[in-house]
Amino acid sequence: MGPPHVQEVPAVTTTPQAVRRASPRTRRKTTPAAPDPSAGFMPQAEPVRLLESDGTPLPARDDYPEPPVETLREMYRRMVVGRRFDVQATALTKQGRLAVYPSARGQEACQIGGVLALRDTDWVFPTYRESMALTARGLDPVEVLTLLRGDWHCGYDPAVTRTAPQCTPLATQCVHAAGLAYGESYQGRDTVALAFIGDGATSEGDFHEGINFAAVFKAPVVYLVQNNKYAISVPLSRQTAAPSLAYKGVGYGVPSEQVDGNDPVAVLVVLERAVAHARAGKGPYLVEAHTYRMEPHTNADDQTRYRDADEVEAWRDRDPIARLEAYLRAKGVLDDAAVAAIADEAEEYAAALRRRMDAHPTVDPLSLFDHVYAEPTPQLVEQREMVRAELAADAEGDA
Fold it and tell me: Which residue among 137, 297, 318, 323 is the active-site one?
């Protein structure tokens, strides 16, 4: 009897047809997972915090290393002086020396952190609430308050200070910041524009148009949303259903982050990272800072109609200045003498502001027609002559 017959087994080959005929279970094992389209854009699930409310440091983080203590001491100084300026400006409003003043008390970490994260060559696009930020940047406080006194729409030179006029319409500065940032980048400059906005501004079309343009053209702009929980009297819950305003950047392909806006150390490091991202040519960045407005929207606002005193009082325990002071004292960077010296500096700053605001400005009614157009229109010339004639008639009547 001969050897048993052995059937030859053909070699297994993998062809496109074979892959298509494979079972679904097999295909799932061999096909790599699809990339997450939101990777790199999503903010962290919880706001970044580096300090407890009492100033106790939280564990160090590799993604957000702590700034030098000298920088934090300067931040503390500017926050103290800034708050004293804010309180003084509020008092000037009550005395009738300002027509209106929107206080930023309680938001000092955002205001000062925003300007500290920038270079002098960068641009700031403020809202009407950023008076504290502008004075901390070195602008003349009387010139900053000129708008709120009603003398000029802008009391400082935007080109010299690299600071846009304070913006009263909601969110229009978002488009301006994107345009300037893109223009600077187009000309090869490494300028970054920082746009301050409130939570209510994220409901406006200009915000979405600005951030979309910035994303498409990779404009080096940082949008800092100071979420102080109310758009005048409208609570955040009536503005958005999103878990955080920071998520609004994801849909535009803009990396975003949320931060405890009353933690000065966290605010500074998050904004420094956002500014570095924009300066490196990677496009815009969105930061949402969770903070709280301690005073009414303006002196014309009755805050008791939409929030109770217990809510306001609860936020006093999260005071950003007290938090940073406690931290710096524990570090040995601040002591009683240093705190007193900074407080004295703040008082001198407020006193000088009072003296200068006592002087009534000399206002020329004909200046209303200056800087409207580079070349005045015939209608503007006619209107100016009408005002000139009325002023002359009044002068003759008083003589």
Answer: 297
Which 3 state secondary structure label does DSSP give 234? strand
List 125's β-bridge partners, or say none.
195
Best CA proximity match to 77, nearest among 324, 326, 348, 355: 324
Q: Alpha-carbon distance 328 to 332, whole Å?
A: 6
Whether 293 is a known active-site residue: answer yes
End-to-end CA distance of the chain: 145
pTM for the full model? 0.87
Q: Could you tell me if 167 and 173 are in contact, meaning their C-beta atoms sit under 8 angstroms apart?
A: yes
E-assigned strands of 254-308?
256-260, 285-290
d(CA 328, CA 57): 10
pLDDT in tens, 335-394: 999 999 999 999 999 999 999 999 888 888 998 898 889 999 999 999 999 999 999 998
How far apart CA 36 and CA 52 sit, in angstroms, is 33
SS3 201: helix
Question: What are 259's strand-pairing partners?
Answer: 48, 289
Pairing label, strands 230-231, 234-235: antiparallel
What value, to the nearest 5°, has the Cα angle with vertex 279 and ends 73 and 135? 40
3-class state of residue 275 by DSSP = helix
Residue 246 and residue 256: Cα distance in Å, rounded?
A: 6
| Candidates 293, 318, 323, 327; catalytic one | 293
Q: What is the dihedral of CA 55, 59, 63, 66, to 10 degrees?
A: 40
Do the Cβ atoms of 219 and 250 come closer than 8 Å?
no
* Tokens standing for residue 60: 């160090």
Return the DSSP state at 48.
Answer: B
- Does 277 qualify as catalytic in the annotation? no
Q: Report the amino acid identity of residue 389.
A: A
Average pLDDT, the chain: 91
In degrees and rounded to multiples of 5, residue 187 shows phi and psi of: -90, 5
Q: Is 297 a catalytic residue?
A: yes
Measured distance CA(125)–CA(162) in Å, rounded: 9
- Other C-beta atoms closer than 10 Å to the C-beta of 209 total 15
In tens, the pLDDT along 77-103 reads: 999 999 999 999 999 999 999 999 999
124 membership: H or E segment, kind and range: strand 123-125
Residue 254 and residue 211 in contact, taking contact as beta carbons nearer than 8 Å: yes
Q: Which of 306, 316, 354, 388 is catalytic?
A: 306
Q: What does the alpha-carbon distance between residue 259 and residue 332 come to, in Å, rounded to a whole number?
A: 26
